[in-house]
Amino acid sequence: MPGIARIPSVDGMRTALITGASRGLGRALARGLARDGWHVVVDARDADALSAAVREIGGSATAVAGDVTDPTHRADLVRAADGGLDLLVNNASTLGPTPMPRLAELPVADLADTFATNVLAPLALVQDFLPGLRERGGAILNVTSDAATENYETWGGYGSSKAALEQLSNILAAEEPGVAVWWVDPGEMNTAMLRAAGEDADSAPPPERTAAVLRRLVADRPPSGRYRAADLPAEPAAAR
Protein backbone atom coordinates (compact mmCIF):
# COMPACT_ATOMS: atom_id res chain seq x y z
CA MET A 1 0.00 0.00 0.00
CA PRO A 2 1.63 3.28 -1.04
CA GLY A 3 2.05 6.22 1.30
CA ILE A 4 -0.20 9.26 1.04
CA ALA A 5 1.22 11.97 -1.20
CA ARG A 6 2.44 15.07 0.57
CA ILE A 7 0.92 18.42 -0.37
CA PRO A 8 3.33 21.28 0.43
CA SER A 9 2.16 24.33 2.34
CA VAL A 10 1.15 27.36 0.33
CA ASP A 11 3.91 29.51 1.85
CA GLY A 12 6.55 26.82 1.32
CA MET A 13 7.09 26.22 5.05
CA ARG A 14 5.32 23.27 6.60
CA THR A 15 3.74 23.75 10.02
CA ALA A 16 3.54 21.23 12.85
CA LEU A 17 1.78 21.45 16.20
CA ILE A 18 3.51 19.44 18.92
CA THR A 19 1.83 19.21 22.30
CA GLY A 20 3.78 18.62 25.48
CA ALA A 21 6.91 20.16 23.98
CA SER A 22 8.61 21.73 27.00
CA ARG A 23 10.70 18.62 27.68
CA GLY A 24 11.44 15.05 26.65
CA LEU A 25 10.28 13.70 23.32
CA GLY A 26 8.13 16.70 22.43
CA ARG A 27 11.00 19.16 22.81
CA ALA A 28 13.44 16.90 20.96
CA LEU A 29 11.03 16.39 18.07
CA ALA A 30 10.26 20.12 17.84
CA ARG A 31 13.97 20.92 17.76
CA GLY A 32 14.57 18.38 15.01
CA LEU A 33 11.65 19.51 12.85
CA ALA A 34 12.68 23.15 13.25
CA ARG A 35 16.14 22.21 11.99
CA ASP A 36 14.46 20.48 9.06
CA GLY A 37 12.80 23.77 8.09
CA TRP A 38 9.41 23.37 9.71
CA HIS A 39 7.54 26.06 11.59
CA VAL A 40 6.61 24.46 14.92
CA VAL A 41 3.78 25.50 17.22
CA VAL A 42 4.49 24.07 20.67
CA ASP A 43 2.52 23.90 23.87
CA ALA A 44 2.96 22.86 27.51
CA ARG A 45 1.31 23.71 30.81
CA ASP A 46 4.42 25.35 32.33
CA ALA A 47 4.91 28.69 30.57
CA ASP A 48 8.44 29.23 31.89
CA ALA A 49 9.59 25.76 30.88
CA LEU A 50 8.01 26.22 27.46
CA SER A 51 9.79 29.55 26.93
CA ALA A 52 13.10 27.93 27.83
CA ALA A 53 12.36 25.07 25.42
CA VAL A 54 11.62 27.48 22.57
CA ARG A 55 15.00 29.13 23.06
CA GLU A 56 16.59 25.71 22.75
CA ILE A 57 14.41 24.65 19.81
CA GLY A 58 15.46 27.64 17.72
CA GLY A 59 14.30 28.12 14.15
CA SER A 60 10.72 29.18 13.50
CA ALA A 61 8.71 28.38 16.63
CA THR A 62 5.57 29.69 18.30
CA ALA A 63 4.91 28.91 21.96
CA VAL A 64 1.38 28.73 23.36
CA ALA A 65 1.30 27.81 27.04
CA GLY A 66 -1.74 26.03 28.43
CA ASP A 67 -3.48 22.75 29.16
CA VAL A 68 -4.72 20.70 26.22
CA THR A 69 -7.84 19.75 28.19
CA ASP A 70 -8.89 23.42 28.20
CA PRO A 71 -11.09 24.37 25.19
CA THR A 72 -9.89 27.98 25.40
CA HIS A 73 -6.28 26.85 25.12
CA ARG A 74 -7.12 24.63 22.14
CA ALA A 75 -8.74 27.63 20.47
CA ASP A 76 -5.50 29.55 21.06
CA LEU A 77 -3.59 26.74 19.33
CA VAL A 78 -5.90 26.96 16.33
CA ARG A 79 -5.26 30.71 16.13
CA ALA A 80 -1.51 30.19 16.44
CA ALA A 81 -1.60 27.84 13.45
CA ASP A 82 -3.60 30.36 11.47
CA GLY A 83 -2.41 29.08 8.10
CA GLY A 84 -3.31 25.49 8.98
CA LEU A 85 -1.28 22.42 9.85
CA ASP A 86 0.66 19.85 7.88
CA LEU A 87 1.34 17.73 10.97
CA LEU A 88 -0.43 17.34 14.31
CA VAL A 89 1.59 15.55 17.01
CA ASN A 90 -0.46 14.54 20.05
CA ASN A 91 2.40 14.00 22.47
CA ALA A 92 1.15 15.58 25.72
CA SER A 93 0.03 12.99 28.25
CA THR A 94 -0.22 12.24 31.94
CA LEU A 95 0.54 9.16 33.99
CA GLY A 96 -2.28 9.98 36.38
CA PRO A 97 -1.63 9.74 40.12
CA THR A 98 1.89 8.75 41.17
CA PRO A 99 3.00 6.45 42.59
CA MET A 100 0.71 4.68 40.18
CA PRO A 101 -1.90 2.64 42.06
CA ARG A 102 -3.32 -0.77 41.27
CA LEU A 103 -6.73 -0.66 39.61
CA ALA A 104 -8.41 -1.70 42.85
CA GLU A 105 -7.23 1.56 44.43
CA LEU A 106 -7.37 3.88 41.40
CA PRO A 107 -9.86 6.71 42.02
CA VAL A 108 -12.30 6.86 39.13
CA ALA A 109 -12.08 10.67 39.12
CA ASP A 110 -8.31 10.42 38.56
CA LEU A 111 -8.88 7.98 35.71
CA ALA A 112 -11.32 10.45 34.15
CA ASP A 113 -8.65 13.15 34.33
CA THR A 114 -6.14 10.79 32.68
CA PHE A 115 -8.57 10.08 29.84
CA ALA A 116 -9.29 13.81 29.48
CA THR A 117 -5.60 14.48 28.77
CA ASN A 118 -4.59 11.30 26.93
CA VAL A 119 -7.71 10.60 24.85
CA LEU A 120 -10.29 13.37 24.75
CA ALA A 121 -7.89 16.28 24.23
CA PRO A 122 -6.10 14.58 21.30
CA LEU A 123 -9.45 13.83 19.67
CA ALA A 124 -10.60 17.41 20.20
CA LEU A 125 -7.42 18.70 18.51
CA VAL A 126 -7.92 16.27 15.64
CA GLN A 127 -11.45 17.60 15.19
CA ASP A 128 -10.22 21.21 15.33
CA PHE A 129 -7.52 20.72 12.70
CA LEU A 130 -8.96 17.96 10.52
CA PRO A 131 -10.53 20.20 7.82
CA GLY A 132 -7.16 21.82 7.13
CA LEU A 133 -5.27 18.53 7.37
CA ARG A 134 -7.63 17.06 4.77
CA GLU A 135 -7.10 20.03 2.48
CA ARG A 136 -3.32 19.90 2.79
CA GLY A 137 -2.97 16.12 2.74
CA GLY A 138 -1.47 16.37 6.20
CA ALA A 139 -0.62 13.86 8.89
CA ILE A 140 -1.49 13.04 12.49
CA LEU A 141 1.04 11.42 14.82
CA ASN A 142 -0.35 10.10 18.11
CA VAL A 143 2.28 9.07 20.66
CA THR A 144 1.11 5.94 22.50
CA SER A 145 2.91 3.33 24.60
CA ASP A 146 3.61 -0.36 24.98
CA ALA A 147 1.45 -0.02 28.11
CA ALA A 148 -1.50 0.08 25.68
CA THR A 149 -0.99 -3.60 24.88
CA GLU A 150 0.95 -5.10 27.83
CA ASN A 151 -0.38 -6.03 31.29
CA TYR A 152 2.05 -4.07 33.45
CA GLU A 153 0.89 -3.95 37.07
CA THR A 154 -0.10 -0.45 38.29
CA TRP A 155 -0.12 0.84 34.70
CA GLY A 156 -3.85 0.19 34.23
CA GLY A 157 -5.04 3.79 34.15
CA TYR A 158 -2.34 5.09 31.83
CA GLY A 159 -2.31 1.94 29.71
CA SER A 160 -6.06 1.89 29.19
CA SER A 161 -5.99 5.53 28.11
CA LYS A 162 -3.26 4.79 25.57
CA ALA A 163 -5.21 1.75 24.35
CA ALA A 164 -8.19 4.02 23.77
CA LEU A 165 -5.99 6.49 21.87
CA GLU A 166 -4.69 3.65 19.70
CA GLN A 167 -8.19 2.50 18.78
CA LEU A 168 -9.29 6.07 18.05
CA SER A 169 -6.28 6.35 15.75
CA ASN A 170 -7.11 3.04 14.09
CA ILE A 171 -10.68 4.11 13.32
CA LEU A 172 -9.57 7.60 12.27
CA ALA A 173 -7.18 6.06 9.75
CA ALA A 174 -10.07 4.11 8.22
CA GLU A 175 -12.35 7.14 8.15
CA GLU A 176 -9.79 9.63 6.78
CA PRO A 177 -7.94 8.04 3.84
CA GLY A 178 -6.67 11.42 2.68
CA VAL A 179 -4.76 12.04 5.93
CA ALA A 180 -1.85 9.94 7.19
CA VAL A 181 -2.58 8.71 10.72
CA TRP A 182 0.25 7.10 12.66
CA TRP A 183 0.19 5.88 16.25
CA VAL A 184 3.63 5.14 17.56
CA ASP A 185 4.97 3.32 20.61
CA PRO A 186 8.16 5.30 21.33
CA GLY A 187 9.66 2.77 23.75
CA GLU A 188 11.44 3.67 26.96
CA MET A 189 13.24 7.01 27.02
CA ASN A 190 15.25 8.90 29.61
CA THR A 191 12.50 11.32 30.52
CA ALA A 192 10.99 12.87 33.62
CA MET A 193 7.78 10.94 32.95
CA LEU A 194 9.51 7.56 33.03
CA ARG A 195 11.30 8.61 36.21
CA ALA A 196 7.99 9.68 37.78
CA ALA A 197 6.64 6.24 36.99
CA GLY A 198 9.34 4.76 39.22
CA GLU A 199 11.33 3.23 36.37
CA ASP A 200 15.09 3.40 35.78
CA ALA A 201 15.10 6.31 33.37
CA ASP A 202 18.87 6.79 33.53
CA SER A 203 19.46 3.50 31.69
CA ALA A 204 16.97 4.32 28.93
CA PRO A 205 18.03 5.93 25.63
CA PRO A 206 17.67 9.70 25.23
CA PRO A 207 14.48 11.07 23.66
CA GLU A 208 16.55 12.55 20.83
CA ARG A 209 17.01 9.04 19.45
CA THR A 210 13.26 8.47 19.21
CA ALA A 211 12.76 11.99 17.85
CA ALA A 212 15.13 11.15 14.98
CA VAL A 213 13.05 8.05 14.24
CA LEU A 214 9.85 10.09 14.19
CA ARG A 215 11.41 12.67 11.89
CA ARG A 216 12.28 9.84 9.52
CA LEU A 217 8.69 8.57 9.76
CA VAL A 218 7.34 12.02 8.88
CA ALA A 219 9.77 12.42 5.98
CA ASP A 220 9.19 8.93 4.52
CA ARG A 221 5.42 9.15 5.06
CA PRO A 222 4.50 5.46 5.27
CA PRO A 223 0.88 4.29 5.19
CA SER A 224 -1.35 4.94 8.17
CA GLY A 225 -0.93 2.42 10.98
CA ARG A 226 0.70 1.47 14.28
CA TYR A 227 4.48 1.60 14.47
CA ARG A 228 7.09 0.84 17.12
CA ALA A 229 10.03 3.24 17.20
CA ALA A 230 12.31 0.27 17.84
CA ASP A 231 11.35 -1.20 14.45
CA LEU A 232 11.92 1.98 12.42
CA PRO A 233 15.15 3.36 10.92
CA ALA A 234 17.05 5.36 13.52
CA GLU A 235 19.07 7.70 11.34
CA PRO A 236 17.83 11.33 11.24
CA ALA A 237 15.64 12.31 8.33
CA ALA A 238 17.09 14.79 5.87
CA ALA A 239 15.25 18.08 5.49
CA ARG A 240 12.74 17.85 2.64
Automatic annotation (TrEMBL):
Keyword set, alphabetical order: Oxidoreductase
Organism: Actinomadura livida
Name assigned to this protein: SDR family oxidoreductase
Taxonomic superkingdom: Bacteria
Keyword Nucleotide-binding: no
Family the UniProt entry places it in: Belongs to the short-chain dehydrogenases/reductases (SDR) family.
Signal sequence, renumbered to the chain: none
UniProt xrefs under Pfam families: adh_short
